[in-house]
Amino acid sequence: MGSFIGLSSLVSLDLSHNHLNVLPTGAFNFLKSLKFLSLAHNKINDLAMNLLRGPQKLHELELDGNMLDPKQLNDMFSDIEHLERLDLNFCNFDDEKISRLKFVKLPNLKRLGLAENNLTNVPSKTIRSIPLLEAINLSHNKIRNLDACSFCGCNISQVFLAHNFLGVDKEAIHPEAFADTKMTELDLSFNYLDQFDASMLAHAQQSLKVLHLSGNSFGGFLHRLTYNLPSLTHLHMAANGLRTIPLNLPYEYRQLNFLNLSGNSLEDLPEDVFQLLPSMRVLDLSFNLFSSFTPSVFASFIGQLEQVYLNDNPWDCRCATQNLQHYMLQRYSYHIQLNYDRTLCAKPQLLKNQPLHKVHYINDCAVLFGATYGLTQTSELVLLLAALVVTSLLIAFLILALLYCGKDRKYKGTYVTREHSRTRLTHPVDCGLSGTTSAMSEPLTCPSSPLPPAPPPPPGSMFVAF
């Protein structure tokens, strides 16, 4: 290890996954400024004396995946009293070995990783010996219950218990399990907790900000999951068999800034989703069945978010995704974090498996109004043709109606003329005669009647005039 000579200013050193099995005494003596050291996933089973005496400023140490002896660890702890983070994940520790570790020698320790070991209980006594401990990772163990005061007597605020067995037994979480704590983050993912109720958290309810409930087969956005959690801002609901987002969500969802819905079977978002999640900034929709968003959902909700995880969905990369592509390019600085290279097109066949944000030319784009409403060129042409046919039919119907009305009126006028003519022929004027004579009387004559002239005869008809 003489290669470290002259590297006194080195701050970070990663030696993980190197098949190391022996580290000589004083291997790191010249690394006086070292703050981070990873020896994870090697084959170290023997720790030399004074191995870490040199780096007096060491704050973070990763020893994951090594089969270590508790006694040798305790000896090493004496040389790293300034350590703030220690990872002993996947080290095959059981309850007995953990109880032998003297964490009291690490008075500044704030984060402890004990995941993927063989623990069956929360090491409460060990935790209490670390007064400044803020976070502990107990994921992937065999823990079946949380006893009363499991995390009392320390400064702990973050507990990670994913992939344990807390839902197998009834009443496995004691009402006083989180007593004397100011819990801000709790991970209960993949714990068979299909009957979980927020009331189980008791003392943690008021202070909890981040809650992980992924993989517990809830099947819906149940009110009992978030009831009486006034400080909740981050919620993980991945892999819970969710198929739809209801039109009404529990009130606590209105205060969420982050929501993880990955690994479900969601196909679309409700049109009023912006009202259901008004405080949302980061949304994870990865590993679902989304192919596109409606223009209104995109404009009122998706387009307003800071970050959206869209990877591993069957995206239809026609014009309906043009706005989405523009949104992704605006946030390209997050492209690694948001897995842009796994946000792929499923349709059309020409673009299949191409990253959505890299598609530059789409052959089926609408050219008039269709792009605004997420329509393809084919759909737009069909609508235009249908509108043209309907308009033509309406005009034809209107013309026929006008022609029919005109013909009917002309026919009625001809009929009335003939009736007037027939009346004059069959009913002559009768002059009245007086039955008495008088010297003063004069012969009566028929007064000339101011009859109107006879109308001209209809074309092609016989007309007799007297």
Note the run of SSEs as H and E: EEEHEHEHEEEEEEHEHEEHEH
Secondary structure tally: strands:
15
Number of helices: 7
What structural category characterises the helix and strand content? alpha/beta
Largest beta-sheet characterization: 13 strands, parallel
Protein name: LRRCT domain-containing protein
Organism: Acrobeloides nanus
InterPro entries: Leu-rich_rpt, Leu-rich_rpt_typical-subtyp, LRR_dom_sf
Keywords: Leucine-rich repeat, Membrane, Repeat, Transmembrane, Transmembrane helix
Summary of the model, kept short:
With 466 residues, the chain is α/β, with parallel strands linked by helices. It has helices spanning 70-77, 95-100, 124-128, 273-276, 295-300, 322-330, 377-426; strands at 12-14, 36-38, 60-62, 85-87, 111-113, 135-137, 158-160, 185-187, 210-212, 234-236, 258-260, 282-284, 307-309, 315-316, 345-347.
